Amino acid sequence: MLVGVLSVGMLIWTTFFSNVMMLAMEHDNFIPAESSIFSFDPYEINQGSSSYWIYGQDRENYYYFSYEPTAPYIFIPKVNKCQGFDRLNFKTWCDAKHGRGK
Fold first, then answer.
1. Is 59:79 a contact under the CB 8 Å cutoff?
2. Is 67 buried (19+), middle (13-18) or exposed (0-12) by CB count in 10 A?
3. Residue 75: strand pairing partners
């Protein structure tokens, strides 16, 4: 019983369920290797015919889907020293790192 309650709570209070739906509905979607299906939170979604994430975050980092085949995303720590940092403008992300791929 307790395991069932904890499992339902995990689904409701994390981003797990929405991430599963996102991954199932759009083949371009993925969870960055540095993040987790339980903590990744896409905060800007493409509004075109495809619903893939453009910007996302988790507890430690911000992510930008860069569309590059060899490095499909970049990321930067939430705590950074970028002057003029804007989480919705990857061009302000000083010292961003390339993701490890899908």
1. no
2. exposed
3. 63, 97
The token duo for 29 is 């979607």
- 16-31 pLDDT, tens digit each: 888 888 888 887 789 9
- The reported pTM is 0.83
**pLDDT for the residue 12:** 57
Q: Are strands 41-45 and 73-77 parallel, antiparallel or unpaired?
A: unpaired
Tokens of 50: 């495809």
Identify the CA nearest to 22 among candidates 13, 33, 31: 31
Please tell me the least confidently modeled range out of 10-14, 32-36, 76-80.
Answer: 10-14
* Cα→Cα distances 3→6, 8, 9, 32, 87, Å: 5, 9, 10, 28, 37
